Amino acid sequence: MAPALFWILFFPATVFSFVVEVSPKNAMFRVGDQEEVRCTMKDCAHTPEFSWRALEDRPMYVKTTTRGSESVLTYESVKRDHENRLICTASCGGDSKQKQATVKVYSFPEAPVISGHERLVLGKDATLSCKVLDVYPGQETELEWRDESGVLETHRGTESMRTLELNVTVTPTREGRNITCRALHHMRGVPAERSSIQTTVTLSVPYAPIEVQLSGSDEVEVGATLTLRCSAVGKPLPQVQWRGPQSAGQWLQDEGGLELVVHNVTHANAGQYECQASNFLGQSKTSLFVIVQGPPRNTSLTLSPRHPIREGESVTLSCRTVSVPVGEVRLLHDSKGKMTKMLSVKGSEINFTLPAAQLNQSGLYRCEASNDYGNQTNSTQLTVTAYPLQVELLPVGVVTAEIGSTLSLTCQASGCPLPQLSWGAPSTEGVLRGNYTEGPRSELSLKVNDPAQEGVYTCHARCGSITASRQTRVNLFSFPSVPIIERSGSQLEGGVSTFECAVTDVYPLESFRILWLYGEEELPQQTPPETTLTPAPTLTATLVSSVSMVMKLSHLGHPLTCQVELQMEGVPSGQRRRSAVTHIDVHHPPRNTSLTLSPRHPIREGESVALYCRTVSVPVGEVRLLHDSEEGVMELLSVKGSEINFTLPAAQLNQSGLYRCEASNPYGKQNNSTQLTVTAPPRNTTVEVLPSQRVMEGENVTICCRSISFPPPIVTLTKLGNGTEISSWSGTFLLTNLTPSDAGDYQVNFTNDLGNNTQVFTISVMERRLTPSRNWEELLIPAVVMGTTLAFAALLLDYVFRARRKGSYELAKCNPSTA
Ligand SMILES: *[C@@H]1O[C@H](CO)[C@@H](O)[C@H](O)[C@H]1NC(C)=O
Ligand SMILES: *[C@@H]1O[C@H](CO)[C@@H](O)[C@H](O)[C@H]1NC(C)=O
Ligand SMILES: *[C@@H]1O[C@H](CO)[C@@H](O)[C@H](O)[C@H]1NC(C)=O
Ligand SMILES: *[C@@H]1O[C@H](CO)[C@@H](O)[C@H](O)[C@H]1NC(C)=O
Ligand SMILES: *[C@@H]1O[C@H](CO)[C@@H](O)[C@H](O)[C@H]1NC(C)=O
Ligand SMILES: *[C@@H]1O[C@H](CO)[C@@H](O)[C@H](O)[C@H]1NC(C)=O
Ligand SMILES: *[C@@H]1O[C@H](CO)[C@@H](O)[C@H](O)[C@H]1NC(C)=O
Ligand SMILES: *[C@@H]1O[C@H](CO)[C@@H](O)[C@H](O)[C@H]1NC(C)=O
Ligand SMILES: *[C@@H]1O[C@H](CO)[C@@H](O)[C@H](O)[C@H]1NC(C)=O
Ligand SMILES: *[C@@H]1O[C@H](CO)[C@@H](O)[C@H](O)[C@H]1NC(C)=O
Ligand SMILES: *[C@@H]1O[C@H](CO)[C@@H](O)[C@H](O)[C@H]1NC(C)=O
Ligand SMILES: *[C@@H]1O[C@H](CO)[C@@H](O)[C@H](O)[C@H]1NC(C)=O
């Protein structure tokens, strides 16, 4: 306005009657704003006319409005293209005047935009970026980073720049800080209030709670108030929770938050208190142990083991208290109304052990605990009882032991864990005095070899102050062997025998009895049993009893028993009775001696025959088998005993004959005999002509026919071709006074029941003139006689021949036949 006014003052209206003004003349428009440029005419009597023109070769992009004396260029929204120099030409009546207006444009957004500060990490360098868009003209704008300490970074744009960007590197800290990005426009004409614009961000890093601290007193008296405070740092600011001895492990969000107050503290409030601070990044906690002080409590006195204690057992008295602060505990014993202090310690516990409780240690025990705030007692009753000691002695009742055996007695104590056992015995033999064992069982084992060991045995048991005993009587016996029977006197039938039964090493004598049994029948005792004491040390005896009997044959083989009985209780039944048996034998000479053949009938030669020779003889003596043969008496066999079996596996003819069995013993002899007959058909026949088969007429010949055969064969002499037969038993034929007609072949036939055999021979007779006529008839007679008289025949024949031809003639004799 001032220049316009100046113009009005120095140029008269007549020359230039109207005035033209543009406003603003030098416009500085911000991009985007709505702006106007006015051209005003004053003092024009006419209707003013306006026209606008741009000096720079660019369209104006503007709306023109003319209202009366004013023309307005309206920029709806300023753009950079609007920058120009404008000429407003105003006409009034024919006159026109021009005014020039300069439009300058700048661009400067509302605020710089900061990025990169959203996700900061504590301690880790981060780049923050600050950006301004659409700046114009670039060379007139500048960016700077600053904080409370001043400018950190600056950056000035260039002409072409439309966007300015400036980075700064920061190190985020837990404290946080404000950082500012400021944009400056240095172009002249930009209003001061618009030449600078800034954005500030707070660099804040969230972190988990730290430095959690619990403060308050950790010692509090019962009934007082407990106050605890918790503090913590963290971003975001942590929340605080509490946990205490009474919160059952749960975290409590207290109303008070940072402070926990417990009124009227009790012991239950003692313990660990925890404060936990947490935010979304985590939690942290701290704790404080709070002690509640007061008089002792929970004072107890307990026994271990709990049950009534047996004498000698160990028992522990445990006296305990809970005392804060720790004070003193005492253990006292109330014995018959008088309290005695047993132990007193600084602390809260006493263990007092009675290693072997005595009966008089029973009674009331008291545990006293005290500290600065008060005292408390507790008591308990200790009962010590004696063991119910019981003793058992085995075996029960009277014990019977055999001398020589080992006596075993067992003492068993019960009702006592460690009894002491000892033994009392009638004799110290084998038992040591004062011998005792610890333990529930004691075994007394001793070799019984002395009757002095008989008597009462006692087992003494002790358990603490209690004693008990048991006894048993031990009876001894000895009956080790069976009786022995011995016989004396005559054993011969009709004589008197004495049987003596002796049993040795018996004890006790009065309990023994001896019986004699003949078969089943008891014999009267003939003499009272005698006893003989065995010399010391055994002190046993030998018991003897005897019976006498007249020997009869009827006694033979009968059993005679000597039975010894021990009549004593407790002796095992198998050892109560022992007996000896003898079978009576009655002596006699051999009897019933027999000799038999088998088979019995006459035997054929070669068959087997057995001879059985037997006798009955007590005592057994000797038997002999004899054969009476032609060669004499021959002993076939002789044995000690009463029997001979003799077998002829193939009987021979010469084994025929009389056989004799002869039995003998010291009392006599007996014989029996039998005839053995062996038969055979004629064989080994021989015919002998004596003196020769060639004789002179008138001479005599003897024909000797021999065979081996039984029974003896009939020998028949036949002149062949003639048929005259002469039979003979003896087999000897005498032909006298032979004539030539007697010459010829002769046949001898041997025949018995079993068969026959034939021999042929020839006789030749040499003629002699002086030959007496022979009489065959005369010769034949004896043979016919002989046919009936068997054994006699030969003799008779001999006799006949001798009688008829007595004198110088000697009848040739045949050698004896073997048959
Ligand atoms: C600023 O930092 C951003 C992100 O780190 C990056 O993209 C940009 O190029 C940086 N600008 C300058 C001028 O260094
Ligand atoms: C950051 O700026 C805010 C607002 O002006 C202020 O309240 C705060 O204290 C500042 N912080 C620091 C760390 O200077
Ligand atoms: C504390 O306990 C006593 C006894 O039980 C009671 O009388 C008193 O009121 C209690 N005080 C508070 C603050 O609870
Ligand atoms: C007492 O006995 C208990 C249980 O046997 C044991 O735990 C404790 O340590 C003992 N105390 C002392 C002081 O001997
Ligand atoms: C126990 O405390 C009572 C009072 O509470 C007191 O009379 C007594 O003397 C105390 N006993 C001992 C042994 O301190
Ligand atoms: C002793 O303590 C036990 C348990 O600790 C309790 O039951 C009893 O009542 C107490 N006796 C006395 C006489 O205090
Ligand atoms: C007790 O007697 C048994 C058998 O009689 C014997 O073995 C043991 O040695 C004895 N002990 C003592 C201590 O005398
Ligand atoms: C003899 O023979 C008889 C009967 O064959 C027989 O019983 C007996 O034992 C025999 N004796 C001898 C001593 O061989
Ligand atoms: C031989 O014994 C038999 C039977 O035993 C008897 O018949 C016979 O008479 C006895 N002979 C002699 C000679 O003893
Ligand atoms: C009987 O004859 C045979 C041969 O023929 C002979 O071995 C045996 O010894 C004879 N016997 C006698 C008793 O002469
Ligand atoms: C047989 O011979 C005997 C003696 O040589 C003679 O005496 C007898 O007459 C004869 N008999 C016949 C029938 O030939
Ligand atoms: C023959 O025997 C007869 C009668 O016995 C006798 O008389 C005669 O003298 C005997 N002859 C001779 C030669 O011996």
TrEMBL record:
It is a single-pass type I membrane protein. This is Vascular cell adhesion protein 1b. Residues 12-104, 109-204, 209-293, 296-385, 388-475, 480-582, 590-679, 682-764 form the Ig-like domain. Residues 1-17 form the signal peptide. Pfam families: C2-set_2 (PF08205), Ig_2 (PF13895), Ig_3 (PF13927). It is found in: Membrane. It comes from Clupea harengus (Atlantic herring). GO terms for biological process: cell-cell adhesion; lymphangiogenesis. The keyword Glycoprotein applies. GO terms for cellular component: cell-cell junction; plasma membrane. The chain crosses the membrane at residues 779-801. Keywords: Disulfide bond, Glycoprotein, Immunoglobulin domain, Membrane, Signal, Transmembrane, Transmembrane helix. GO terms for molecular function: cell adhesion molecule binding.
